[in-house]
Prior knowledge:
Elements: E1 2-6, E2 12-17, E3 23-26, E4 32-33, E5 37-42, H1 55-63, E6 70-75, E7 80-85, E8 90-97, E9 103-106, E10 110-113, E11 117-122, H2 127-132, E12 139-144, E13 146-153, E14 156-161, E15 166-169, E16 174-178, E17 182-187, H3 191-196, E18 202-207, E19 210-215, H4 219-226, H5 236-258
Antiparallel strand pairs: 1-2, 2-7, 3-6, 3-10, 4-7, 5-6, 8-13, 9-12, 9-16, 10-13, 11-12, 14-19, 15-18, 16-19, 17-18
Amino acid sequence: xxxxxxxxxxxxxxxxxxxxxxxxxxxxxxxxxxxxxxxxxxxxxxxxxxxxxxxxxxxxxxxxxxxxxxxxxxxxxxxxxxxxxxxxxxxxxxxxxxxxxxxxxxxxxxxxxxxxxxxxxxxxxxxxxxxxxxxxxxxxxxxxxxxxxxxxxxxxxxxxxxxxxxxxxxxxxxxxxxxxxxxxxxxxxxxxxxxxxxxxxxxxxxxxxxxxxxxxxxxxxxxxxxxxxxxxxxxxxxxxxxxxxxxxxxxxxxxxxxx
Length: 259
């Protein structure tokens, strides 16, 4: 298997597979591929112990921002190529995942992975915080064994947090972090900060040890910057809150309708 990330501002991940090799991706990630690449739809990620299979696993992926069905790619009759293009200006990054050394990724971040990668839903707080805390609170968990490729928007900044060392982050800027890092969702302190500061109502405190990857251009910020040019009376806060809650439910219904 050969993985090559091409381009700069809008990168493309090109995967060349030999016969017998395969990868899995989220539903609808394909950009282009050779004619001998065979696609199949599955609910199983192929993880050890069956952790990534079945309808319930698919529903958990959908709540985390993924899809119920995964796409399995495997070449026939010789080497084949499949490519995945970035949706926004930014970076495509490989993450090495091992048992007990997984990652949590923003809800639209995972692109594809080797068959041992198990995508699921990841959050450590209550459902209310996940739905209304903003874009960064609905997370995908990548477990299992293998390599996963994720998309991060804008420029990328990486920090290594020591044990007990913390960083306070606006939720949309969270790209990915190791599962050894704990996170706490909380409201901004003070009414003036929440309603007059322009930074939203929620923050995330990340506490080490572990690696965190932050993105400079979250999708929610880009949508807020463009919203005045589209007109309409819906406020940015309403749009973001509705998009997070509705996106999870709508994604699940959309997968059923497309399948």
